[in-house]
Amino acid sequence: MTTQPLPTDPGLLLDAQLCFRLYRSERAVLATYRELLADLGVTYPQYLVLLVLWETDGATVSHLGSRLALESGTLSPLLRRMEDAGLVSRTRSGDDERVVHVRLTEAGRDLRERAHGVPQDLWQRGGLDAGETAELARLLDRLSSNLAGAEPARDPAIDAAFGPAAVRT
């Protein structure tokens, strides 16, 4: 049986789909992160948890879930593996046993210095300069906000990470 080409609808070509470009980019980014994080001995989701804890050590599980857009069913096993690896400790709040605080161990804190170059390595491997990286971050934030029906907000973290040269109006 031979395949017959169908009449072309340019809007339905695979390469015309934004979703496919995002999917392909996500796979490439995650593969690069896997390589960059191998020396640290953490997975990408563990790295994301560490990033939040490096900002706010002692965060609650609900705060982590909110920041990372993860459900507790996904987050709890992840935190358990991180605790088993000696990166974090979990303790229940004395005021409310339903609240669990996650704190970095010394090993978790020590990884921060070793992870310092990971973000820059990623965008440099991607062939983007600081301005392009900041613009891509802003566009992705705007796309996510618009699709979620939320008001897009300027994220000062982008400016802080990429510097004033990256600011585009």
Please describe what this structure looks like.
This protein has 169 residues and is mainly alpha-helical. The protein has a domain of 111 residues: Winged helix-like DNA-binding domain superfamily/Winged helix DNA-binding domain (Arc Repressor Mutant, subunit A), CATH 1.10.10. 57% of the residues lie in helices and 7% in strands. It has a 3-stranded antiparallel sheet. A hairpin with a 7-residue loop joins strand 2 and strand 3. Helix 1 packs across helix 6 and helix 7 runs antiparallel to helix 8. It is globular and about 65 Å long. The mean pLDDT is 90.
List the helices and strands and how they pair.
Blueprint: H1 18-38, H2 44-55, E1 59-60, H3 61-68, H4 72-84, E2 88-92, E3 100-104, H5 106-114, H6 118-125, H7 130-148, H8 156-162
Antiparallel strand pairs: 1-3, 2-3
Multimeric organization: single chain
Q: Helix count?
A: 8
In order across it, which strands form the biggest sheet?
1-3-2
The value of Rg in angstroms is 20 Å
Number of E-state strands: 3
Q: Name the helix and strand elements from N-terminus to C-terminus, one letter apiece.
A: HHEHHEEHHHH
At the first level of CATH, the class of one domain is Mainly Alpha
The percent of residues in helical segments reads 55-70%
Classification by helices and strands: mainly alpha
Low-pLDDT residue spans: none
Could you tell me the strand content as a percent range? Answer: 5-15%
- What number is the mean pLDDT? 90
How many strands, which pairing sense, and closed or not: the largest β-sheet? Answer: 3 strands, antiparallel
What do we call the CATH homologous superfamily of one domain? Answer: Winged helix-like DNA-binding domain superfamily/Winged helix DNA-binding domain
CATH architecture of one domain: Orthogonal Bundle
Tell me the distance between the termini. 55 Å
Overall 3D form: globular
In the CATH scheme, what's the topology name of one domain?
Answer: Arc Repressor Mutant, subunit A
GO molecular function, one term: DNA-binding transcription factor activity
Protein name: Transcriptional regulator, MarR family
Main location: cytoplasm
InterPro entries: HTH_MarR-typ, MarR/SlyA-like, Transc_reg_Sar_Rot_HTH, WH-like_DNA-bd_sf, WH_DNA-bd_sf
